[in-house]
Amino acid sequence: MSFKTILAVVTDHAHLTETLSQAISMASALDAHLDVLCVGVDRTQTGYYYAGMNAAILQETLNQAREDASGLAAAAKKQMGLSELRWGVTEAVCQLADVARFVASHARFADLAIVPRPYGDDRGIELEPVVEGALFEGQSPVIVLPDGGLELKLPGKIAIGWNESAEALRAVRSALPFLSSAHTVHIVVIDPPKHGPTRSDPGGQVSQYLARHGVKVEIDVLSKTMPRVSDVMRRHVMDINADMVVMGAYGHSRFREAILGGATRNMLETSEVPVFMAH
Q1: pTM for this predicted structure
Q2: If we measure between CA atoms, which residue out of 258, 248, 278 comes closest to residue 132?
Q3: d(Cα 158, Cα 76) in Å, to the nearest integer?
Q4: Of 8, 24, 49, 279, which is the most buried if we count CB atoms within 10 A?
């Protein structure tokens, strides 16, 4: 397996340049085709109206979304034109309620999606369903970028958040191209169970699996010395100077929408390095 088609999703001019710069850097390192999806979001929520709203106002919000999509696409083409990559730019308009499904329809045919961090004061409400759509319905692994991170490139040191779950294993398998090229991979186990088949060898099975793929593995068993597992993980990532975190994406269904679970959200909110996730 290799990453030969990368999808970058942009919905906001404020994050376009940084997102595309990072996506271009990764696509260059992987010799991959880069598809850029520029989405103008109509943020009018279907079914919610206020007194005085009429068809003209609704049309105005749609026109604004079209202008946003056109402006994003023009800026993306200008930035992509300076690269030597194989690339394409798609311009589209989408209602807020349909963002996840729309992004998923494109992510299904990508090997990897690259998106900005969905949480923060300057983040649009549509960024969380962008991540969810690519991960859950699109079934694409996703790299979520930190704010102001270093140039995105093939990671030399990777930390895997390992808890024996199906989501974590899916993330490990999806990340094999990165894991195989890294010089060190740390399997991070936080408060392993005291009872169970792996209690005497936490991380041993996945370590053996990766070693047979030529991955250079170390196992780090940590105690939960902070209130949240994500806090322990983040501190350890900084301590070992990791370039990337690999973890499963946890969520649950609510009216057929995927809602990111607390552990996933906390990690995305605080991580200072790119987070590679799969579900």
Answers
A1: 0.91
A2: 258
A3: 30
A4: 8
Rounded Cα distance between 112 and 95, Å, is: 24
The span from the CA of 10 to the CA of 216, in Å, is 35
Structure-token match 């271009």, residue found = 24
The DSSP code sequence of the chain is: ----EEEEEE--HHHHHHHHHHHHHHHHHHT-EEEEEEEEEE-PPTT---TT--HHHHHHHHHHHHHHHHHHHHHHHHHHTTS-S-EEEEEEEEEGGGHHHHHHHHHTT-SEEEEE-S-STT--TTHHHHHHIIIIIS---EEEEPTTPPPP---SEEEEE--S-HHHHHHHHHTHHHHHH-SEEEEEEES--SSSTTTTSTTHHHHHHHHTTT--EEEEEE---SSSHHHHHHHHHHHHT-SEEEEE--EEEETTEEEE-HHHHHHHHH-SS-EEEE-
Q: How far is CA 35 from the centre of its chain?
A: 15
Contact 37, 9 (CB under 8 A): yes
- Give the torsion through C-alpha atoms of 166, 118, 61, 53, to 10 deg: 80
Do 40 and 68 touch, CB atoms closer than 8 A? yes
Q: Which residues contact 277 (CB under 8 A, 6 or more apart)?
A: 135, 141, 142, 143, 144, 171, 246, 247, 248, 249, 264
Please name the amino acid found at residue 182.
A
Give pLDDT tens digits for 137-189: 999 999 999 988 789 999 999 999 999 999 999 999 999 999 999 999 999 99
Tokens matching residue 259: 């809602």
How long a stretch of residues is the chain? 279
pLDDT in tens, 48-76: 455 455 555 667 888 999 999 999 999 99
